[in-house]
Amino acid sequence: MNNLSIKQLETFRTVMRSGSVTLAAKTLCRTQPAISAMLVGLEKELGFALFERHKGRLVPNPEAYFLLEESDAILERLSRATQLMAEVKNLTRGKLRIACMPAAALFFMPHVIAEFVKDRPEVEVSMMMRSSTMVQDWIASQQYDIGYSELPKDRDSFHVEPIHLQGVCALHVDHPLAKKQTITPNDLDDFPLATLFTRHAASEHLRALFEEHNAAYRPRFELQNYISGFEFVEQQLCACICDPISAASYKLYKGDQGKVVFRPFSPVVTFDHAILTPAHKPMSELAKLFAENIQQSVNSFVSVFD
Length: 306
Known about the structure:
- Residues 4-61 form the HTH lysR-type domain.
- The structure is a single chain.
- 44% of the residues lie in helices and 23% in strands.
- By secondary structure, the protein is an alpha/beta fold.
- It is rod-shaped, with a radius of gyration of 32 Å.
């Protein structure tokens, strides 16, 4: 039965449901001899008769009813598979596995995901929040479709799409510096700051920048992410020079109730992020489109500072 075909099963099912070769031929827009030949070929392939033939009429054998049940199941699964693959082709079905660093995982990435899937009810998403180093390792091991992290060093195991963001300064709304249009290192001379941990590249760069301007760099709170630092700013304990995604996340979360305002910082402090994709695992079209959406969404998400 290696040569049993879908057309044979479809023809057989139509004959069984219509009750005659004549009606089946009309339904399938084929000739009666073609339908009869298809049934004969099916019986030959099976090795037994499906019908008794009496005076030009077909009378189904018990085996025919058994085959009808199986044909219904096979053809329904085929129809469902065809529909599913059409949805995959149209990017309305599939699954995305995303790894994301904390600064973007709390608000930004959920925002991007929500916008992406709202018209795609059959798309499933798994998002895990981990440190940038872990995100990079997961993408390098080809475990996830897309990663969002701080800009990594080049590795052969993933592709990198850099995203460069200009930092802003977080201040309590009632602090005198909040009235300034732009904040400089000299404005924050010996002023307590909420920063990332000491050995983080952003903290080292900021320290060097303050030294260049002969301003005392004073990290009072060392943290894993800037969003945590905004609580200290709200309590008027410090200022914070942070990436605009963290700042926009605060504004999205707090709305008009927030006590923290954000001002441009000069000279420009750049925060380098990246979209990562596996180098040795083919990306689905759905994943490719989502990666493009991340790039486009960054600008719109941080546009609250324009």
